[in-house]
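Exercise (ungraded).
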Amino acid sequence: MVHETVTMEGHLIDSDILRRVFNHIVEEGGGFEVLEFRVGTTNQEPSFARLSVTAPAPETLDRILERLNYLGAAAEVADARFAPAEADGILPDDFYSTTNFDTFVRIAGRWQAVADQKMDSAIVLGGGAPRCVKQGQVKRGEPVALRGPGIRARPPERSRDFSVFGFMSNDVSAETNKGIVIAGTAREMARTRKAGQGIVVVAGPAVVHSGGDAALARLVRDGWVDVILTGNAFATHDLEKSILKTSLGVCQMSGRAVEGGSRNHLYAINAVNRAGGIRPAVESGLVTSGVMYEAVRRGVRFVLAGSIRDDGPLKDVITDVVEAQKAYVAALEGAGMCLMLASALHSIAVGNLLPARVRTVCVDITESVPVKLSNRGTLHAVGLVTDVGYFLERLEAELQVDGA
Amino acid sequence: MVHETVTMEGHLIDSDILRRVFNHIVEEGGGFEVLEFRVGTTNQEPSFARLSVTAPAPETLDRILERLNYLGAAAEVADARFAPAEADGILPDDFYSTTNFDTFVRIAGRWQAVADQKMDSAIVLGGGAPRCVKQGQVKRGEPVALRGPGIRARPPERSRDFSVFGFMSNDVSAETNKGIVIAGTAREMARTRKAGQGIVVVAGPAVVHSGGDAALARLVRDGWVDVILTGNAFATHDLEKSILKTSLGVCQMSGRAVEGGSRNHLYAINAVNRAGGIRPAVESGLVTSGVMYEAVRRGVRFVLAGSIRDDGPLKDVITDVVEAQKAYVAALEGAGMCLMLASALHSIAVGNLLPARVRTVCVDITESVPVKLSNRGTLHAVGLVTDVGYFLERLEAELQVDGA
Amino acid sequence: MVHETVTMEGHLIDSDILRRVFNHIVEEGGGFEVLEFRVGTTNQEPSFARLSVTAPAPETLDRILERLNYLGAAAEVADARFAPAEADGILPDDFYSTTNFDTFVRIAGRWQAVADQKMDSAIVLGGGAPRCVKQGQVKRGEPVALRGPGIRARPPERSRDFSVFGFMSNDVSAETNKGIVIAGTAREMARTRKAGQGIVVVAGPAVVHSGGDAALARLVRDGWVDVILTGNAFATHDLEKSILKTSLGVCQMSGRAVEGGSRNHLYAINAVNRAGGIRPAVESGLVTSGVMYEAVRRGVRFVLAGSIRDDGPLKDVITDVVEAQKAYVAALEGAGMCLMLASALHSIAVGNLLPARVRTVCVDITESVPVKLSNRGTLHAVGLVTDVGYFLERLEAELQVDGA
Amino acid sequence: MVHETVTMEGHLIDSDILRRVFNHIVEEGGGFEVLEFRVGTTNQEPSFARLSVTAPAPETLDRILERLNYLGAAAEVADARFAPAEADGILPDDFYSTTNFDTFVRIAGRWQAVADQKMDSAIVLGGGAPRCVKQGQVKRGEPVALRGPGIRARPPERSRDFSVFGFMSNDVSAETNKGIVIAGTAREMARTRKAGQGIVVVAGPAVVHSGGDAALARLVRDGWVDVILTGNAFATHDLEKSILKTSLGVCQMSGRAVEGGSRNHLYAINAVNRAGGIRPAVESGLVTSGVMYEAVRRGVRFVLAGSIRDDGPLKDVITDVVEAQKAYVAALEGAGMCLMLASALHSIAVGNLLPARVRTVCVDITESVPVKLSNRGTLHAVGLVTDVGYFLERLEAELQVDGA
C-alpha cells in the first residue's frame, strides 16, 4: 500500500467538492482517512481538509491524485513542468488538458492564473504568463504544461444569490414555469450590463422560423446584445425575410410555401453578395430590417461560421472553421453572459470555448442540447425547454420592465 | 385469374383516392384496367371511374376488394350483412371495424349514414339506424355489421379553403412560423363558433407548468371553450395554483420548490374533496381563479378521466376508464373543432373518439404526439411543435383581434 | 432573530446531505453556524454535525426546520403528532406528506420504521405500526401523522459498489455506451434474484412495435421476471401477434399494413374475451406464444391497468384506476429491481409507488421519461435512451452469459 | 381573365402529380378545366392530360405556370433562356433554382438531361451541356438558366416494387417494426451492389458512443461501404477507441469516465497528427482497429468535413467548408444508396447534395432529422427512429444472410 497526504481549501461542502473527492478515491479502488477537517462556521468562511489517501499500487495512487488535482486538491507543492511542442499543432504526449474551470499554474514558486480559460486546450507559456491555447494553434517549440504537480483547477462555487443561476443551475426540464426563468434571465442581463460585461447571443435558424427574430432584432436595437455568434443559415433567413418577406421560401404573412425549392434563400444570398456583403447591403438600403440590420446599425459584432450544410454562402461567412473558431474566441472576450438560442451546432461550439463562470441560458425545443451542455460541465447554465420565439418575446417584455 | 369490376365516384384525384386504389391493387399482387374514367372538368365536379380488377386467386381478390371498399369503391351493390353479438362485448368474428371516416351502410336497398362515427368500433343496428359502438359496449344479440358488401367509407376531401387545415394538414414541424398557424387557429375558432359547433379543449398538466393556464382560463371565461376533457393532474395543478399559489409545490412567483414531495398537490385535493368537489369548492369561495374556476362559473362541461398515475384523486374524477370514455364520447357530441394541448394520453384517447372531419390542432413540445395522431389518419389535423404556454398566450391575443 | 440547534448523523458528505442542508437554510433566508462537525475518518464511518440555525422570524425558522427534517436533521426530539382523518379520503390539513425515502416515526419515545414506503402518501397508524397509505385510501378516524417533530426521512446513501447504480445513477444520456449499462443491468438482475428479491417489468406497447417482445417472452420463460405491470395496449399487441401474426394490423413478417383501421387489434380482444380472458385463452390453445403466454405458463403475476385510451378492453384489465393502483402496490411488494420499458404512463405510475431504494432502469427512446423520473427523486435509477428492442435483445444475451 | 393550355404525360395519378397540379392552381387563386384526360389502362402505361388554366391576372397565371412547371407540366414549348453570371458566385436575379428531381433543359429544340442533379443550385451551360452548379461555384460569364420556359423537372415515380422504399417511403415513426425495415435495407444494399452502384455511409459520433462502430467497421471490412462522409468528431472517437480503448475519455470496458475533460480525445488527435494523418497512423501500426482502420485497409474513400465544434482537428479534416462540400459532391458520384447514421449536420448536408432518386435510410434516435429530410423532398427516404447501434448490429446480421 502506498499513501499520500493532500490538502484542500474552499467551499468544500457547498460546492460539492469533498463528496466528489471521496467518490473518486473509492471509485479508483483507493481508501482515505480524514486527518483534519475544519468546516467554515458560516456561509462566508471557507473550509479546510487534510486527507491521507491510500492505494494498492503507485499507478493507482497517481491516477487518484490526478483526478483530485482537477478538483483543486494538491498533493505536493511543486512547480508545474513544461515541455516544448514538437511541431506546430503537435503536443508532448504528457500534456495537461484543461477544463473550463479557472486554472492556476505554479511557476517559480508562484501560482499564476491561466488566461483565456477554455476546456480541452493546452496551457502554453508565452512571455512568462500561462494561457489556454487550442491544440491546433500551438506552435512548435512553445512550452506546454504537462500533467502532474503545479496545476490547480478551481471548480466554480455554486452561486448563493437568488438568481436563476443559483437555484436552477443544471436543471433541464420542460415542466418548469418558464416565465420565472425568463424573468430571472432578464434580471441577470441587466446586472451583466451594469457590471460592464458582454452579453453574447448564439442563434440558430429556428429563431427566424419560429418568429422570434422580430423580438431579437429589437433587443439588438436596444443595446441588449454585444456579440452575435451564428452561421450562414440564420443570417440568410433573417436577410431573406427583410428582402423578400419569406423564410426558406415560406411567405411570412400567409404561411404558404412558394414552389421551387429554396429559390428565395439563394436569391437573398445573391442580392447581398452582389452588394458586397451584409454591411454594404444595409448601407445601400437593400436590407432594411431584421437582426443583422440592427446589428450593423448598432455596431454589434457578429461572426458567421461556415458549415458543410451552407448554401451560398454569404460573403461574410468565415468558411474555414479553424479561422471561424478563432474569431469566435476573440468575440467571446469579456463575456459575462451567454444566451444560446436553438442551435445545437453553435451552442456546443461556444460551450467548448467559454469558461465555466460565464452564465449561460440554453433555450431549445428538446432536452438534448441542454442535457449535453450540462453533461459537459457548463456549470452556471440553465436549460430551458421551450419555443425560442416564446422565450424572446417574453424576454423582451421583461427587459422593458426590469432592464431600463 | 379472377376479376371483378368496381366503380368509384367523388373527388377521386383531389382527395388522393384513385392513387391509393391503384397502390392497394398492386401491393396485394393484383392488376387493373381502367375501363372508364371521367375526370371532373372543374374543381367542383366529381370524377367517375370504372376499373376491372384482376387477381391470381379468389382470396387475393377478396382482400383487394375489402381494401378498396374502405376507400369508397364498391364492387357489388348489395345490402350489408349483420350478425348478432354472441354475448355482451363479444362480436361475431367477421365484424366490420370502423375508420374515422363518415360511413354508410346499405340496408334494404338504401344507403344510411352511420351515427356517432368513430374509429375502431363496431356498427350496430338499433331501431333500424346504424351507429358506431365501441366493442365493449355492444350488447348480446344486437345486430353487428359484417365486413363485405353494403358498407362504404367516405374519406374526407381535403379542404380547398384558405384555412390552416387546407394547406397545412398533417404537416408536423418545429420549423413552421407558429404565429401563422395560431392566427389560422383563431380564425377557425371564430368560424366554428359562428357555425354553432362546439370547441373542445383537451389539456395536460404541462399547460399549468408552462404558465399557459392563465390564458386558457381567460379563453374559458370569454366563451371560447365548450368542453374540457382532461384528467386529475391538470385539474389538481390548476386548483393548487388557485388555493396555494404553487404548482406541484413549486412557488409560481419565485420558481423555487417547496421541500417535501408534492404536499401542496395533496393538500389541494384534500381541500377540494372536503368541500365536496370542484363545483362546491368554487361556490364556497375556496377556489377563486383558474381554468376550473372559470369553467364552473361559465357552465362549461368538463370531464376528468382517471389514470393509474393519479394522486387523490379529486372527487370529480371518473375512476373507471370505461365510464370515463363514455363520458368523453357524450361530451364530444356536436364538436366542430378540438385543441389538444400537451397531453399524450388524453389527446390520443380523444383522437380515437373523433370523426376525421373534426378540425384538430395538436400542440406539443415534441413531434411524437402530432406524428402519432397524423399516422392514425386524423386528417384535418395540424401539428404544432411549440410551447403550449406560448400557443395559448398568442391564441388569446389573436382571438381578441379576430374573434369578436 | 430566532434560532434552533439541529443535529445530523450519517454519510453527510457522501450522500450530499450536508450541502443540501446549507443550501436550504440560505435559500430560505436563514443563516447557520457549525457548532460541531466530525467527519467519518473512513468510508465506512458515519459523520456527525451540530448546527445552530438562525432566521429573521419564527415562521421562517419553522419552514427551514421542516425542510431540514426531510433530510434527516432533527431539531427537537419529540413524539410525532397524529390527528384523525375527518372522513374517508379526507386528511387533517396539517398531514405529513411522504417522500420515497425510508421514513421513521417516533411513537412513545421509540423510532419506528414506516411500512409500505411510497411518495405522496399519508402516514397512518394502524395496530400501533405506522405505514404509508395513499390519500384516497385513508379511512375516517384513522390516526394520520402531522408534519412537525417526530418524523425523519433517511435519504438513500449513494451506492459505493461498482454496479451501474453506483456510478451512473441519475445520468440520462443518449451518448452512453449502452452495452456497458445493459451488462450492468444483467449483473444486477442476477444479484437481485440471488438475494431473493423480485424483478418487476413495466412495459409499454412499444416493446411489441419495436420487436423486443420476443426477447422479453424468453426472459419471462427463463424466470427473469416476477411481475409484469402494464395496460391493455401492451397485452393486446402481444396477444394479436400470437393469434394473427400482426401488430396493430401491421404484418410482422412483411411490415405492410392491413387496411381497415385496427381490426386485428379488436379481433384479438374479441377472441381472448370470448375465451374468458388471457389465462383461459392460453389454456385453450388460442394463444401459443408471446409475453403473456409465457407469463401464464410460468405463473408470473401480471396486472393490467385500464386507461382512457383503451380499445376493448381485455377482460383482465382493471378498469377502475384506484383499484388498479392498489393491485400495482400489492404486486410491487418485495421488489428489489424494476425495469421500466418504453411506457411513460405506467413508468411514472410505478415510480410514484416505489421506495427510492429499489433499483430502477428506465429505457426510452427519448430523454423525457428518464428525466422526469430523475427529477422526482427516484435515486437508484439509471436512464437509458435507446431502442427498447435493442435493450431487451442485448439484455437477454448478457443474462445467458452472466445470469446462469 | 387570362388562360393558358398545359399538357402533362407520365404516371400522373400514381406519382401524385395530377392532384398537386390541381392543388397549386386553386391555391394560387386560379381555376382549370380538363380538356382531355387519358388514364393509363394498366400499371405500366403512362397517362396524359391537357388542361386549360385560368387566372384573374397575368402575374397570377405566370406564378401558377411556374409552379406547374416544377411538376413537369409544360405550358409552352420553347427553348430555355440563359444569362451570364455577373461575377464569380453572383447569379442573374432571374436564375432557375433546382430541385433534387431529374431535370431537363430545352436547348436548340432538344431536351437535354441536366448533369450533377442536386437541389438549390443553378443550371450552368458548359461545353453545350447543362449541369447543376452550387451558387458559390458559378464563374463570371457562365450562362445560367433562367426560370420560365424550357425547363422541366421530373418528380420521381413512387416505386412499385416490394422494397421498403416502395411502401414505407417518407414514413417516420418510432413504432415501426425495425427488424423489417432493417431487413429491407439489407436487401436493397445487396441489390445496389449488384447494380454496380455506390453505397454511401454518413456517420455521426453517436455511432461510436452507442457501440455501433464495431459492426460498422465489419461492414467496411466486408466491402459493404464505398464512401464514408463524416467529420472530425466521428473519426476521432473511432481512433481514440483504437488507440486508448476509451471514447471521449469514457472507458469502453467499464463505462466509467476518466477525469480531466476529454484529454484522451486530444491525445488521439495528437498521436494521429504526429504520425501524419489517418492513413500513416494505420500504416505505422498506431491504429489497429475501427472504422477508419478498415476504411484505409480496404481503400474506402472517406471525407472529413470541418465544423466549428471541432477539437484539433485531425490533419485529414478539410477545414474550409466550401472545399469540404466540393469533396462530398465528388465522393457522392455514382451513389445508388445512402445510409445516414445519427448525424444531423452531415445528414442534412448530404441530403442537400443528393438527387431524389438515391435511396436513403436515415437512422436517428429522434424524429426530428428524418422529419426534416422528408420535408425537404428527399423522396426515396425511409426514416427509422431507433438506436444506431441496434441498426448496425442487426444490419450486419441481415447482410450475412441476404447479402452474400
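Further reading is listed at the end of the chapter. For now, observe: Chain D touches chain C at residues 164, 167-168, 174-181, 184, 205-206, 209-211, 247-248, 250, 252-256, 365-366, 385-387, 389-390, 393 (CB under 8 Å). The longest helix of chain D spans residues 178-194.
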